[in-house]
């Protein structure tokens, strides 16, 4: 069966690339889908009698990549030709080979140097998945008789807010220079977006430091809010957190590029402001309950997940610690 499948694949490739003599070279660094039946991905080049000049791109090569855990292929960006004509030809040959070998999903990452190849990939059946400053990710689901289960792009952006109260029972507040509250004189808690790869606890500490110059440490997650249609059709997840400031920090130095001003305001004065929305009032109720000790919110600890070497951030309620906080050692939690 394997020999028959390889023979059929060879036939498909030869029909795709024409009758001119070719030979297959196996790059040691490539790892194709195992269904191809080879230990590394083939790269088709001209035979020695018709080799192109050194340094020039050769057409009709199989694009190299590595197989994933879902019978798909993640292409190696280094294997993608820059020439639109070479890219289009190589992509056609590769897709025919992948379909014949039972490959399902294909992930193609194109850097800015290959931006001119994007339209050709879309013409071949690829769809946009997401984009970053460094690349555009495209995907293609090869089976024609099965709907694509490829995961969509991230659906949410993540934001944080910080409830910081000092020993004088003053709350840290800011007025925004930019955004929907610009010029309205509205006092609010410091907020900001989480950077990729950053824990929400770290993001809250960073935002407070950047916006106000105040050093404060995470203590609890007090509330979470989800909203839709916020950022170009994406949803938004917002975490309100309590931070404890280092004592003796009276001077506030605000971030002039983003804020009109920042200050310590008596908590009762802030609660009494007429600009609070119903949502803000509910959030403030959680803040006040935390402050008087009737509400603890969620702990946050880094935990070994068991699936990878790194640790994940786990948020959990006080009832999870039936044995008290000393149970952290038994659970493998890291403070």
UniProtKB/TrEMBL annotation:
One matching Pfam family: NUDIX
Key word Hydrolase present: yes
PROSITE patterns (alphabetical): NUDIX, NUDIX_BOX
Highest rank taxon of the organism: Eukaryota
Keywords: Hydrolase
One function term, GO molecular function aspect: NAD binding
Domain Nudix hydrolase: 155-287
Sequence similarity: Belongs to the Nudix hydrolase family.
PANTHER family: FI03680P, NUDIX HYDROLASE RELATED
Protein name: Nudix hydrolase domain-containing protein
Species in which this protein is naturally found: Auxenochlorella protothecoides (Green microalga)
């Amino acid at each position: 069966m394997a020999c028959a499948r390889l023979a059929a694949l060879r036939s498909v490739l030869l029909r795709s690339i024409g009758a001119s003599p070719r030979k297959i070279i196996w790059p040691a660094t490539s790892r194709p889908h195992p269904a191809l039946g080879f230990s590394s991905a083939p790269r088709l080049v001209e035979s020695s009698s018709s080799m192109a000049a050194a340094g020039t791109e050769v057409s009709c090569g199989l694009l190299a990549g590595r197989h994933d855990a879902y019978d798909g292929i993640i292409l190696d960006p280094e294997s993608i030709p820059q020439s639109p004509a070479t890219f289009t030809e190589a992509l056609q040959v590769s897709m025919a080979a992948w379909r014949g070998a039972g490959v399902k999903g294909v992930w193609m990452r194109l850097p800015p140097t290959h931006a001119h190849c994007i339209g050709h990939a879309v013409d071949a059946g690829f769809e946009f998945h997401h984009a970053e400053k460094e690349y555009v990710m495209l995907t293609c689901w090869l089976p024609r008789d099965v709907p694509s289960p490829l995961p969509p792009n991230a659906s949410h952006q993540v934001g944080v807010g910080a409830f910081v109260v000092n020993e004088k029972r003053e709350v840290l507040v800011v007025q925004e220079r930019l955004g929907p509250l610009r010029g309205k004189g509205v006092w609010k808690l410091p907020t900001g977006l989480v950077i990729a790869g950053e824990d929400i606890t770290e993001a809250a500490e960073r935002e407070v430091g950047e916006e106000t110059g105040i050093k404060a440490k995470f203590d609890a997650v007090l509330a979470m809010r989800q909203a839709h249609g916020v950022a170009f059709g994406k949803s938004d997840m917002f975490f309100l957190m309590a931070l404890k400031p280092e004592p003796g920090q009276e001077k506030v130095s605000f971030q002039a590029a983003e804020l009109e001003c920042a200050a310590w305001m008596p908590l009762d004065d802030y609660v009494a402001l007429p600009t609070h929305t119903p949502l803000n009032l509910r959030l403030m109720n959680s803040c006040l309950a935390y402050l008087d000790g009737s509400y603890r919110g969620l702990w946050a600890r880094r935990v070994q997940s068991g699936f990878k070497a790194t640790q994940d951030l786990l948020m959990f309620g006080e009832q999870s610690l039936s044995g008290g906080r000393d149970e952290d050692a038994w659970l493998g939690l890291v403070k």
